[in-house]
Amino acid sequence: MSVKSDIEIAQESTMHHIVDIAVKVGLSEDDLELFGKYKAKLSNEALNKLKTNKDGKIILVTSINPTPAGEGKSTVTVGLGDAFNRMGKKVMIAMREPSLGPTMGIKGGATGGGYSQVLPMEDINLHFTGDIHAITTANNALAALIDNHLQQGNELKIDPRRIVWRRALDLNDRALRKVMIGLGGPLHGVPREDAFDITVASEIMAVLCLASDLKDLKLRLSRMVVAYNDKKEPITVGDLRVEGALTLLLKDAIKPNLVQTIEHTPALVHGGPFANIAHGCNSVIATRAAAKLADYVITEGGFGADLGAEKFLHIKARSAGIKPEAVVIVATIRALKMHGGVPKQELSKENIASLTLGFSNLQKHIETIKSFGLPLVVAINKFITDTDLEVKTLLEWCERENVPVSLTEVWEKGGEGGKELAKTLLSVMEKEENKFHPLYELSDSIDQKVRTIVQKVYGGKDVEFSSKAKKQLIDFENYGWSNLAVCMAKSQYSLSDDPAKLGRPSDFTVTVREFKPSIGAGFIVALTGEVMTMPGLPKRPAALNMDVDNEGNALGLF
């Protein structure tokens, strides 16, 4: 029997009108700005009405370090929401929007999989409601305004060699990592070196996702550092006096998008910063709105607990005043075997020895979540190739470690396959005390914060700073930026900054090669390893499998 693809399952599903989905959480058609029958944005008026509502409980879904074997974190997030819905709970899902870069490249979309998907998956994985395009436009409008400022006399004395704002594109295009602009003579601008980031790495994406409302968005945009002048002093968007124009371009993109799952559970899909180069969480506005509308909110942080969960807990939760109730750590037997040394092509074979070795990666993420004082449950996302003995071995290990665990079959069974996880989670939330606390204080120095993350979250021995990074630490202290959070840009594949070190490496040193100020977002980015802010395409991009039929239906989209 052939297994249906995600897109086949999605296209065979029947969607309800989005107004009917909104009614489930107390919204009416007047609260929505409709994008056809199955997508809508929540209006500003609706968001303002919700502010006096009681907050629901927020549950964070994270995972072990991802591997090419797949973890299914988004799938479990959707399936868990559907399970709560089947159990009669008032629930909403809050997720990120996919970037076209990985969609057309190698990673795939971000709408879940199997019978645990948000719909319409084709729209969400492509242009959706245009939010990411609006961010791209705002980013590039700012770049154009900076270069025009140089051309028109450079009143702010910007040093063209010290412009740090880059252009952006929501595609993987390695050819744009370094470019020359302004060539062709005096009428065509000031020649200088420039670069492109993928849109989801733009600070504007982070700003939009961390802003509490339109007023806060404009304030954060004004604080963004775009360059330094001839005295090496920072120049901001506010200095250029263009924060109003940028906010205007983003006035609709800031509104959360309402969609539904295959089982018609309401979901807010909004914002999409990567977790390996940005903070990896959906928007604060969407998460807060979901918490005001539902008793339970299922949300996620990108990649493993060392990235998305750490940033959710240190950056998003602190910025938004959010206190999560519990954390789900998603693991697959396939991925654990890869962390234990099994190559991808041999994952279908039973291998208890390698599986057991891979437990060390899961164990570190469990320790990390416990260090934040949060209750947790391990969700085993079951694959068809998992043997009974492998499943039994993992369940018994969790029991020996006194870690709550649940076998999850949401890909195959939808919400029904997530009921056990939902029940286990509710039991843990009721029995275990929530002692949530950050691992560092904002008053700590920047290097102390980095060291805390490396040692307590990654399990590393030490941190080494390049000569450039050391100088930046001094400069940032002088600029008054040392009280901001830290956002680590690091490989998602390893706890270390070396993607080849799977499992649970020890005695490693993380090297910070450079810092990037994201003052509008409210954090300092620490760049490590070879993490690129503009990814490239693989040898065989996913785009090669994509097409559209004569009726306009998407083909080959996962």
Task: Describe, in plain words, how this protein is organized in 3D.
The chain is an alpha/beta fold and 558 residues long. The chain folds into three domains: 6-130 and 253-429, 3-Layer(aba) Sandwich (Rossmann fold); 131-249, Domain 2, N(10)-formyltetrahydrofolate synthetase (2-Layer Sandwich), CATH 3.30.1510; 446-528, Roll (Formyltetrahydrofolate synthetase, domain 3), CATH 3.10.410. It has 20 helices and 25 strands. Strands 1, 2, 3, 4, 5, 6, 14, 15, 16, 17, 18 and 19 form a twelve-stranded mixed sheet that branches. β18, α16 (388-400) and β19 form a beta-alpha-beta unit. α14 (333-339) packs across α15 and α15 packs parallel to α16. The longest helix has 21 residues, at 131-151. The mean pLDDT is 95.
Compact overview of the structure:
The chain is α/β, with parallel strands linked by helices and 558 residues long. The protein contains 20 helices and 25 strands.
Q: What's the rounded overall pLDDT mean?
A: 95
Any idea what the CATH architecture of the largest domain is?
3-Layer(aba) Sandwich
Topology, number of strands: 25
Question: How many angstroms does the end-to-end distance come to?
Answer: 19 Å
Number of helices: 20
Helical proportion, percent range? 25-40%
Instruction: List the uncertain runs.
Output: none
Structural class: alpha/beta
Count structural domains: 3
| Largest sheet: number of strands, sense, barrel closure | 12 strands, mixed
**CATH homologous superfamily caption of the largest domain:** P-loop containing nucleotide triphosphate hydrolases
* Beta fraction: 15-25%
User: What's the alpha carbon Rg, rounded to whole Å?
Assistant: 23 Å
The CATH C-level class name of the largest domain = Alpha Beta
